[in-house]
Amino acid sequence: MPRQARIDIPGHLYHVIARGIERRKIFIKDYDYEDFLLRLEKALDKTGSKCYAFSLLGNHFHLLIMRGPRPLSELMRRLMTGYAVSFNLRHKRAGHVFQNRYKAILCQLDSYFLELVAYIHLNPLRAGIVEGLKALRTYKWCSHSAVLGEHAVSFLAKEDILGQFGSRLKSAIKKYESYLAERVNKFKPGELSGGGLIRSRGGLSGKIGRLREEEKEGFDDRILGSGDFVESVLKDADSKKVEKVSLEEVMGHVIEKTGVRAGDIFSRSQVRQEVKARALYCYLAKERCGVSGAQLMKQLGLTSGAISHLVYKGREYYKTLRL
Questions:
Q1: pLDDT by residue (tens digit) across 259-291?
Q2: CA–CA separation, 83 vs 54, rounded Å?
Q3: Measured between alpha carbons, how far is 146 from 157 in angstroms, rounded to an integer?
Q4: How many structural domains is the chain composed of?
């Protein structure tokens, strides 16, 4: 079956997970962790998003992100593409670093915020990377240590976490630690990983194939929340869908606005106006036609990095035009 499109809506909370290809390590040396967090900080700043929690675990990572005005996909592209290139250069390797695409679960803020913070912060403990909560305090590749003040992480919105436990800092930290301790053995594999309406009815009763037909209709593993929440999110997502147009229509618009011929757009020319037209074409092909980066790579004979750069430049150019 084809993969469902991600639900990417401003102002919503997302639990983001990505793994190394073939479950290989994506963090080997301290510099890898540091580079990833630096890139995360820059991506958050560029997209206006917030990070409430992170956990970097050798062969995968977890993030808790409040999506800002720019798409979550843009944040993750900036983070993962840049990191993959630098990782390969540092370790003298080639090829993919991450397995498939990242998973982004849209979560109901009021019901799951603190549960998700605890789930992500306890990951190093469950994975056996650290032994006990005392050791977790000093594991700097998990934002738990930053919430406690053990390490400084400037981009972490820790005040929003501690604010849930009171206005006095010392008291709030103590209550947060108690909250985390109560949940050390609470979470099961796959917990807090979507489920939509089924979860709101009391959990997953078995594999999706064994569910009743009416239950299947309520299953959406892109969303974690109550039935009403899932329904409202899906309606919101539908209302924001942009009517698709054909590539021929996009090409026509680009030619009309830039005066550049189709043959020059598909060429390797570095003439400024032709590069701008190529960038605009790439951006609109993805935005209005749903064309993938891989399809553009094949069509234009360019690398993934070059296409990503053109899409970014095309977006900026598009802001100056009226198509």
A1: 999 999 999 899 999 999 999 999 999 888 878
A2: 16
A3: 10
A4: 3
